[in-house]
Amino acid sequence: MAMETFLLLFILVSGFYMAWNIGANDVANAMGTSVGSGALSLKQAIVIAGVLEFCGAFFFGSYVSETVESGIINVDLLRDTPLVLAYGMVASLISAGIWLQIASYFGWPVSTTHSIIGSVVGFGAIVVGVEGVYWDQVAYIAFSWIASPFLGGLFSYIIFSILLRKIFYVPNPLRAARKITPFLVFLVMTTISFALLYGGFERFDLGLPYSVLISLAVGSICAIFGYFSVRRIKNIEQDYVREVYDPRSIAALEKARRNLQYVQARSSGDLGSQVTELVDHVKDISLTMKEAVDIHATRSEYRIVERIFAKLQLMSACLMAFSHGANDVANAIGPLSAAVRAVLGGAYEYSQPVPLWTLALGGVGIVIGLATWGWRVMETIGRKLTELTPTRGFAAEFGAAITILVASRLGFPISATHTLVGAVLGVGFARGLEALNLTTMRDILVSWIVTIPIGAALAVIIYFGISNLFGLG
Predict the structure, then answer these.
(1) What pTM value is reported for the model?
(2) Shortest CA distance to 50 belongs to which of 464, 372, 287?
(3) 408-429, pLDDT tens digit by residue?
(4) Dihedral sign, Cα of residue 115, residue 66, residue 152, residue 322
C-alpha cells in the first residue's frame, strides 16, 4: 500500500511537472505577440493568461486525450499489464517535460503535443514493439510541421498586406482605420467564437446552426462596441495634436511672408536684397513647419491605429488563452489520468472522463509555469523573430486562428506553436526578408526537428528507470 501511495504521488508530480512546462512554453502562443507588440506588459500578460488558461482548463478541459492515450500506440496490447501502461505514461510525461524545460530555457517555442507524442512513441516502440505503433498517424502529425507554419504564414501575410494597403498606404490612415475596424472586430470575434463553440472543446459542441448564430451575435455586439471605442480614441488624440502643433502659428508665418513680399516689391538696392533673403528664409521656415506638422499628424494617426489594434489583439489573445487552456491541458492530464486509473483500477478504460481535480491540477501547473518561465518563449515569439507592433501582432494571431479553425474542421492535427511561429514569420515576410531574424528561425527549426526523437529517447531511458524503481509486480 505504501508503494502504491508513493507511485500515485509520483504520477501526480509528473503530471504537474508536464503542466508547468506547458505553461512555461506553450502559453506564449496566446500572449507572446501581445507582449512583443507592446499591447500588454509582461505582468499583465501573465495575469490575464493565468486566469483564462486556468478557467479554460478547469471548466472546459478535455475529458480524454484520445490521440495521446490510444491513437499513437495499440493500448489493447497492454490491458493485461496495466502497470506497464502506467509507467510508460509517467515516463512520457517526464520525458516531454524535460524537453520542454530545455526548450523553454533557450526560448525555443516547441510543440507540447509533439513532445508528448514523441515520448509515447518511444515508450510504445520498446514495450509493445515497433508494429504496435500507429506510424501512419505519427507521419500524419509530423507533416503538420510543414503544413501549419506554411498556412499560418500565408494567412497572416495576406492579412497584414491588406492592412498595409488599406490603412498604412493611404493619405488618411486614421480615417481608413475607423472604417475598417468594426468589420475587423466582427470578423475576428465571429471567427474565434465559432472556433470555440463548434467543436472547439470536447463534449461542448452546440452544433453548426447554434454555433453560427451565437458567433454572429457575439461578433455583432463586439463590432458595435468597437465602433464607439474607436471614435472615443480619435477625439482624445485629436485634442493632443492641436495642443502640440497649433496651425495658427503657420498661418501667422504665412501672413508675415506675404507682408515681406509686399515690402520686397517696393524695395531696391541693398534693402531689396536683404528683404529678398528674409522672404526666402521665412519661406523655408514655413515649409519646415508644414512638413513637421504633416509628419507629426501622420505619426499621430499611426499611433491611434496601433492603439486600436492593440485592443483587437487583446481580444484575440484572451480567447486564444482560454481555448489553449481548454485543449492543451490534455497533454498533461490525459496521460496522468490513464496512469492513475491503471494503478487504482488495475485495468485501462480510456473512455472514462477525467476527474475535475486533475483538470484543476493541470490548470494550476500551467499558471505557475507561465508565471515563472513563460517570459522566455514570449521573448522569442514577440521580439526575436521580427519586430512586432499591435497591427503586426493582430495579423499574426488572426492568421494563426484562421489556420487552426480550418485545420480543426478538416480533422488535421496541427501544432498551435508551429502555426503561430509561421504566422509571425508571414508578417515578417510582408515587411521584407530583412525584417526576419534568420538565426532565430534556424534555432527554432532545429528544435522542431529533434522534438520527437529526443522525446522518444528520453522516454525509453526514464521508463526503464521507473520499472527498476517500482518493479512490475
Answers:
(1) 0.70
(2) 372
(3) 666 565 677 788 888 888 888 8
(4) negative
